[in-house]
Amino acid sequence: MPRIFVAACVAWDRVRAQGIYLAVCLCLTLCVLGDAPAADSPETDEVGQRIGLLLDSGMDALNHDRYPEARDCFEEGLGLARQRGDEWSIAAFLSDLGLVEQSLGQYSQALEHHEQALGIRRRIHDEWGQAADLSNLGNLYQALDRYPEALSHLQQALAINRRLDALGEAGKVLTNLGIVLEKLDRYQDALDHYDQALPLLREAGDLDSEANTLTNIGVVYLRLGRYPQALTLHRQALAIHRRLGSRAAEANDLDNIGIVETRIDDIPGAMSHFQQALTIRHEIGDRRGEALSFHHLGILNQIQGRYDVALEQLGRARTIFHSIGKPSGESATLAMMGLVFQLSCRYQDALKHYRAALAIHRKLRSLRGEGQTLTNIGAVKFDLGLIQEARDHLQQALAIQRRIDDRDTAAASLNNLGNIDQHQGRHQDALSRFKEALAIHREMGDRAGEGTSLANIGNLYRAMDRNRQAQGYLEQALAIDREVGDRAAEASDRLNLGLVHWIEGDSEEALAHFNQGLTLTATLDTPELSWRLWQAVSNVYAARNQNRAAIAAGKLAVNLLQEMRATNRKLDQRMQEGLLTSRRFVYRDTAERLIQQGRYAEAQQILEMLREVELYDYLLVKDPASDPRRTRASLNPVETDWSQAVDQTTADLRAVEAKLIPLKRILEQVRSDTEQVAINVLTKQHQALESDLRSALDALPARLALITPTEQARINAQMAEIHGGQAHRLASLTSRSGRPTALLQTLILRDHLRLLLTTPSGWSTAVSTLDASTLDKLISALVQALRDPGTDPKPPAKAVYERILGPLEATLSEQGIQTLMSQLDGRLRYLPLAALHDGQGWLAERLAVVRDTTISTPPPPATDRRERRIAGLGTSRPHGAFAALPAVEEELESIVRRQDDPNDQGLLPGTVHLNEAFTEKALRQAAAGDYAIVHIASHFNLQPGNELESALLLGTGELLSMSELRRSALDLTHVDLFTLSACETALGGPDADGIEIEGLADIIQRQGAHGVIASLWSVADTSTAWLMQRFYALRQEQGLDKAEALRRAQMELIDTSGKLVHAAVRKRVPLGLRPSEDGLTSRQADYRHPYYWAPFILMGDWL
């Protein structure tokens, strides 16, 4: 399993000191008071003294982060200054109130007060005050992520300070300009401004601003991966801020130290510093800071695999960021939540959050955020099997990251692009990317990233059959992941090391790694990793002939896939299909193992689950009530007992962790003795439970091996009673039709084709020894021959018959089967089984063939066959790319007798809607009428992979897509048969599986119709009209069921070589055909060729 490297750092919102002008405001206000007009009365002197006292007290409170106290002082002072009409003091108090509000994240109020203060100072020509307010507004706009406005205000402030020769203040502005430039990913420009600021601030003796600048230089070094230098600078800033008593700045420094520690995988240190920062911020009421702390704590819990806790903390951070109008913080948190959802395999939620974050990043023009989010979206697309889309996103991301020198995230993109190269077989390209990423991670000291790249190189070497090298790299990765405490990564390493040992023939060591991985994932929300581990366990047990254990493990893998897919039920159709495509083998392998052990009913449940899920994914419009992804593979009683014991141990582990984790968050230096004792006790309990879980996992084969043959037979009978409905259904159909009926199910596996035949008396199974690639070539050759009336189809038809029905021929003959229902797998769905040839004749000459569907409809209402009415709809004219169907008019006239025309010679009473009269409204009216048959003779193009692109041509030239047909909500409950006589099914690419054919039947049956006839290819010839007329005539006149009537109509066409076709329609000659003396055409059309009679397949109810 490749290690997908997601740009976790996308979520880090590095804390930066703001460099707010507190000292400047204090100095200016004192100066103003000193220059104020002389007092006229003792009362005036008292007011002035009170204003000065409020200003001093407010600034002291603000400098020590006592924000409510500062606000009270400034609001009272502002009121007194307004009473006196003292504009200097009014401006000072407005500016100071803005600083309090900005510190509290109340940005709209802060913006209003700063702008009011600036307006007054411009009016009274106070340049010093203007510089202060411009600086404060610049900082505020930066906090609001309005970077162009921030740059403009700060540059104006810098110009004034330089003109006034205020070098210390110029240093502060340079620092804040550096912050904005760093936000814009202009790292070198930011460093240049910080380098200019530091000597100015040191000369002015401004320790607070010097510490702020050191902090911001550390942030840039962190961006550039220079972790030791960053850590040194943040610790220097922390020492200064603690000496100055600035608690808000101290919290920022603690946060920044924690961020660096996270990058170098010092998780305990990071947790300690983040908790200290959160405590301070909560005490001083710093909401923005609290959001940052929750955000960072959420990341640490994600790293440790505690996804539910991570999402809770990240959700709190996002709520605060949104409420205070901080889009950059919100976007970072959205991206981090997307990562947690992705790691939990909740892909739809991941994409939703990533896309929301990407929109904000682009609005803010944050190239770093855009690149990181594109990397993460690319990783999700890879998980979903959308390889080209994944590559496109990752290449866009890497281009951005190289342009702005975002090296850590560039390494993530390189790892993911390497995985794509490996997936596509470009091993050398993959190795080059992985090694480049590894070099970056090592240079930056990123141990977690190093582990990821090592694991990817190890997996690549395994794919290249260089197992010794693979093992070396994977063991290095495992050591690092254990060191940094990344349990999910460690479990992934265990999986991959186990695969290497298994390939090398050491199944015991492989199993130990797999079970250790399952122990690690037991309390993690990692279904993708967990199902892969269970499938690996299943393969080992199967290779060791421990078949019962292999089956149990396979069922658990299937159920995890079902759970994962249900969680992602809102993904679009392409993504749903991608999620299934690379995982079908799990269902197939498990079903095959059940069949090998004679556990046929359980196998049929798995096969039915796979077929229903394939069909459900094809359809765009879903019916939640019938969502098959809610289905789970049933465990037998012994499997259930074992599984429940494992689940109970897992639940106990979760309960212990729920108590242990909060206690471990308490800093060691403040833990009580009682808390430490509790940690020690819970740790021992956790270790004991993990040991119990590993023992339970190891004991699976032994537990199932205790089942005696008698007990196994009883269990099989019990499961057959629960899931063996097929045999009962076949018995009922045999009784109702009077003809022995069987069900054929096929299962395409890597190296063979499994055949399962169910009859009323039980099951038979056989194997065709050919690989999937060879089978696909046989299918393609036969389909091409069937669709070309100039080609002899018998050789390929015989070759396919020998593989599909040859092994079961004796059973079919012994039981006298006359009707064969089928559930076909993969591209076999493109074949009409009636056209298989046994060397003596076509299958249609021996058996009626029906395509079984997932929908069970009640028996149609009992009506006299002579009273059945038909609605005929179609178009004969060309429309755009759709060719004319000249025989359609003839087809409808031969089967529909218009009741308003006494001379009409049609077979069944009804109505016709031809050409322009065939509209969607006409179709609705036909559905709403009392017609037992709806017959449509028009192009219906079925396209693999997308029901939007599969469409019915209406007589007006408009297209009605399969999706629109589903949404049309036709009421077909009274319709016994819905016929589409001119469907055309495209074969599609190598991944096409023919599910669109059953998808069409599913749509129609879900709207109430009992049976469906559709064609696999369109035959623009009179033979279709004749075949359809004979089919309905045999139903009407001889009372045959649908399946037998269709077979006999096909046989008449074969037996007469088409002469009856021309005799029946001699009054009308198809365009381009001229009658010849023998009744055939000059083109000598041979209607015995399956091209003319084989495309019509009957699905659903066939009685």
TrEMBL record:
Domain CHAT stretches: 795-1101
Intervals holding TPR repeats: 131-164, 171-204, 211-244, 411-444
Keyword Acetylation attached: no
Superkingdom: Bacteria
The UniProt record lists the keyword Nucleotide-binding: no
Keywords on record: TPR repeat
Signal peptide: none
Pfam family, one: TPR_12
Example GO molecular function: identical protein binding
Protein's UniProt name: Tetratricopeptide TPR_1 repeat-containing protein
Naturally occurring in which organism (per UniProt): Thiorhodococcus drewsii AZ1
